[in-house]
Amino acid sequence: MQPPGPQGPALSDAVATRPSDRLQQLSRASEAAAHQQDTRPAADSEPRFWQDVLTEQLWQLFAGLHDEADGPEGSTGLPSPAPGSPEASGNARSTGSGGSSGETPFHVTQETARRPCRFLKPICWDPEDFEDAWERPDALPWQSRKLAVPYRMEKVRVLKPGEPLLVTTISSFTRHAFTCGRSGVKVWSLVGQTPGAQLRTCLLSPHSMTLLLGGNSLAGVTVWDLKAPCLHVRHALPCADLTCQALAASPRDSLALAGFSNGTVRIWDLRNQSVVRDLPGPQDGAKTLVTAERQVWAGGLAARLQCWDLRSPKEPQEYHFDSQIMSLSPHPLEDLILVGTANGQQWLQPTRGGQKYTVGCKDSAILGLQFSPLGQWWVSVGMDSLVSVYGMPAGTKVFQVPEPSCITCCDVSPNNRLIITGSPQQATVYQITY
């Protein structure tokens, strides 16, 4: 059976109806609607769709064309034709006495009267859309600057993804830009980039739930929540007028640490973003910073390795090296700190006292090194443009992979399967096979 619609019987009847009959229908419908409005309970104060004769008649015309398609649930609440009227007779003839045609009788739909539709409620706009007041003399009260035509723009960021872009998009909610190239999608943070600001370091928490960012001319060290549905800055740790060049985290104590170029090592409590303590670090600044158990280890260009106990504000222990300390990595299971120096040497320093010992060397400065999650091996990179993997405990060289330029940083994934390296030109991800 063809469903009723604009081409169904209701439309045919409406077209076939003479103008004089239509006017009579409108007149009777107007009187019935007025009677219905007069008999409405006084407590029902909601506005009706029709407030004047013209609107009412237009609604009657529309309802006459579509009531049959709406069915009992789509009833408009219009009064039913009076018994014995031509409309009632015509409906009875079209449906039969028992409704054997299977269609809902038109007069049944009319009898199941429903209250007229209410006025549409006003749209609830986000307050941010109207937070600015437009002060032009000819502006209307509801107008906003954001709805006006712009008259200037200025450049605030330049993003260099290093490849031709296919699509770009931007979010004002999360303050991120997304660039799509043939190699993948890159996510750019637009937060805190004041003139002259530069990122210098970042740190992923041991549980991969938080990202710390620090640098020069920033409002503070920013804490990004990675487990939220949308990337956003959860906290900004205060460090005004300080240049951050190293970051560390102590998950057991919910602490974040930063080493600054003036030699200060600052500790924050992430639970309330308060400053716990400032430690007098290396005078030339902490180039690298790590935590091991309840200890903080810092190394810098003065060729000194310093260690503080977080449980007491005593003077730090110091260990001297022959060259500048460029990178540190704590062993995940043993009381050892791996030290990489500018002359290419690699050392293991016991954290509970004892003599350090060398575990292999490279031909040039070591810029980054990282233990594997279980501590059986570590990766070392630097000016020699080689990704080198060494085994514990003697520092036996396992293999090396060349890259086209010097390598400035590296990391190992928590699942022990991926290595990432960074250079001035690119970042490279390696998959490990055992």
Automatic annotation (TrEMBL):
Signal peptide location: none
Q: Which GO terms describe its molecular function?
A: structural constituent of cytoplasmic lattice; transcription corepressor activity
Gene Ontology cellular-component terms listed:
cytoplasmic lattice; nucleus; subcortical maternal complex; transcription regulator complex
SMART domains for this protein: WD40
Subcellular localization is given as:
Cytoplasm; Nucleus
The record's annotation in PROSITE patterns points to: WD_REPEATS_2
Q: Where are the WD repeats?
A: 246-278
Membrane-crossing residue ranges in chain numbering:
none
Protein name per the record? Transducin-like enhancer protein 6
* Organism in which the protein naturally occurs: Galemys pyrenaicus (Iberian desman)
